[in-house]
Amino acid sequence: MKEQKSVVQKIADDAARATPDNVARQVRGLSDKAIAWIFISPTVILLLAINIFPLIWTVFLSFTNYKANRASRGYEFIGLRNYERILNDSDIWHTLQVTAHFLCWTMVLQTLLGFGLAWLINRHFRGHGFWTTVILLPMMLSPAVVGNFWTFLYQPQIGLFNYAVAFITGADPSSFQMIGDVNLAPWAIVIVDTWMWTPYVMLICLAGLRSIPDYIYEAAEVDRASKWRQFWSITLPMVLPFLMLAILFRGIENFKMFDLVVELTSGGPGSVTELASINLKREAFEKWRTGYSSAFAVILFVTVFGAANIYVKALNAVKRR
Question: Which residues, in sequence order, are bridge partners of residue 64?
Fold first, then answer.
């Protein structure tokens, strides 16, 4: 009976001590850094589990000849043989060339058009808010929807795109096979991606333009600097970090572009639009060469990570100027 009373008394004493003031004193005993780690540690652990484990598993599989459809055969360690095959595979180099063509042209077009649109929108003409919203509509759509929409526009017989080109050039509309012609198909996916994501670049550039203080332009006008001089000496240098940031984001996204191209061409005709991501999917889930595709994925990851790291250093150098 006495033991039960002591237990009850202990619980009552603990409850009495667990007042808001006592809890606050205990929390105050922890440093801000410790409190921060208490709150963010579950999220950090979850993110590490989601990202680090698949990466380690992919690296492990890249050194084996494992095939997911024949899992019962287990794993056979083959060293760097998968990497040697990839580096000597002409099909892989072809897909990388296709990816480089797509990446370079989309970056050039989206940068020029996005900055130009931002420059126009920033002039605050009548109805600029409405037109800004209209221009942003393409990037709000799903890539699958955009792919199907442009597939219809590219149709030789009824596609509006062909009739527009025919009106400009005077040629027969049915002669344009944008997604069926070996020479035109790569440009077809470039046009669609540029149409969809130029507003994204415009939005970032517009933020950069509106971050420039007005008094800088006022001082330049006092010094009688021309508009062209103001653009090269004030506007472009101050917007350049925003522009480089937009190029970084779009470059990473376009390097792993998949769904939009699959809906448009599925990598065809032949393999002229088969990007690295599409080839990786076919190796992994159609040919079931899991170890081989894992090695290819590691190579792509190292390429993107290395290029992004160099680019970020250049971006930081520009910001410090």
Answer: 77
Residue range 287-305, pLDDT digits in tens: 999 999 999 999 999 999 9
Instruction: Give the tens place of pLDDT for each residue, 244-276.
Output: 999 999 999 999 899 999 999 989 888 999 999
**150 domain-assigned:** yes
- Measured from the Cβ of residue 170, the count of other Cβ atoms closer than 10 Å reads 7
Cα gap 169→183, rounded to integer Å: 18
DSSP 133-180: HHHHGGGGS-HHHHHHHHHHHT-TTT-HHHHHHHHHH---GGG--TTT
Residue 172 within a domain: yes
**Residue 12 forms part of a structural domain:** no
Three-state DSSP at 64 gives: strand
User: Is 95 within 8 Å of 271 (Cβ atoms)?
Assistant: yes
- Among 18-22, 156-160, 184-188, 234-238, whose mean pLDDT is lowest? 18-22
Q: Is residue 52 part of a domain?
A: no
Q: What is the CATH number of the domain that holds 204?
A: 1.10.3720.10
CA distance 55 to 42: 20
Q: What pTM does this model have?
A: 0.83
Distance, CA of 85 to CA of 89 (rounded, Å): 6
Structural domain count of the chain: 1
What residue numbers bound the domain in which 89 lies?
84-320
Alpha helix ranges (H) inside the chain: 2-17, 20-28, 32-61, 81-87, 90-121, 128-136, 143-153, 160-169, 185-210, 214-222, 227-230, 236-255, 259-264, 276-285, 290-320
